[in-house]
């Protein structure tokens, strides 16, 4: 077999590589083994290991669980793998992360800053996409969800809220939440997150 006949192993996505490195650093800072982190997060050791080595792109649900263990919002975690904070974030420089498995695309609109409590995120869900989070990354997290295009169903505390274009929902997140795009088109929304 010739060398050119062998499929090369694709290089990991640069964002996934930086994220994997940061996840490994956080685990090391806490002095936890993969087994200990698996127990605390409810995520298998093999999944955690693959995410840390950037062998797989972590899902939104996985990152949410890890953020809960590490006491961070997802934006805080993602900002830790970006460059030095700046007060202006041009649209072309706003980091975009995609959970290909669920059809969720997340754009960090606010310039990252670990010392601030609020942040803006643009979310996009494909028609039929359904994301469930078993817990908030930070208990009592305040969220404002403003639908720019399409429709979005949000469930929190076993209450479902149907949001049409222009609608805004404010809530504090203490338990499981679910974001679902009923379709027929995708949904685009702004998520304002405020730490308690």
Can you give keywords for this protein?
single chain; about 200 residues; alpha+beta; four-stranded antiparallel sheet; 5 helices; 10 strands; globular
Poorly predicted segments: none
Give a short account of the largest sheet: 6 strands, antiparallel
Order of helices and strands: HHHHHEEEEEEEEEE
What is the helical fraction, as a range of percent?
25-40%
Straight-line N-to-C gap: 60 Å
Taking Cα atoms only, what radius of gyration do you get, to the nearest Å? 18 Å
Question: What value does the average pLDDT take?
Answer: 88
The amount of beta strand, in percent, is 25-35%
User: Looking at the structure, what is the overall shape?
Assistant: globular
Which class best fits the helix and strand makeup?
Answer: alpha+beta
Number of helices: 5
Describe what is shown at a glance.
The chain has 5 helices and 10 strands; from the N terminus they run H-H-H-H-H-E-E-E-E-E-E-E-E-E-E. It has 196 residues and is of the alpha+beta class. The radius of gyration is 18 Å and the shape is globular.
């Amino acid at each position: 077999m010739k060398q050119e006949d062998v499929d090369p192993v694709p290089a990991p996505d640069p964002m996934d590589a930086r994220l994997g490195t940061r996840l490994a650093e956080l685990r090391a800072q806490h002095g936890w083994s993969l087994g200990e982190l698996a127990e605390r997060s409810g995520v298998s050791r093999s999944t955690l290991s693959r995410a840390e080595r950037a062998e797989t792109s972590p899902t939104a649900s996985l990152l949410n669980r890890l953020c809960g263990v590490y006491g961070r919002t997802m934006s805080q975690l993602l900002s830790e793998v970006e460059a030095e904070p700046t007060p202006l974030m041009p649209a072309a420089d706003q980091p975009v992360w995609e959970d290909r498995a669920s059809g969720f695309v997340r754009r960090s609109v606010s310039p990252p800053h670990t010392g601030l409590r609020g942040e803006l995120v643009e979310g996009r869900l494909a028609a039929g996409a359904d994301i469930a989070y078993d817990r908030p990354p930070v208990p009592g997290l305040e969220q404002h969800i403003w639908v720019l295009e399409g429709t979005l169903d949000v469930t929190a505390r076993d209450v479902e809220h149907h949001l049409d274009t222009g609608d805004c929902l404010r809530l504090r997140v203490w338990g499981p939440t679910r974001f679902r795009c009923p379709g027929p088109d995708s949904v685009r929304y702004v998520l304002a997150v405020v730490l308690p």
